[in-house]
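Narrative of activities, Objective 1.

The group set out to show that a structural description can be obtained from nothing but a protein's sequence at a throughput compatible with the screening campaign. Below is one input-output pair from the validation batch, recorded exactly as produced.
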Amino acid sequence: MPSSRQVWNKQRKDEVLVDVHDVSLGHMTKQRWNDADQWIWSEQITHESLVSIEDFQ
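Output recorded for this entry:
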């Protein structure tokens, strides 16, 4: 099994209106996925993989 790397920036937090028709209700935080091309991969291998790269993708 290949070794793995750490990955950062997979998700972000966006502030969105609770109701666009009633802005007095305020905002809520939503977790959203970033595109894979925005992920940051560690240069060094950090641990033994649990799954193959093919299965992961």
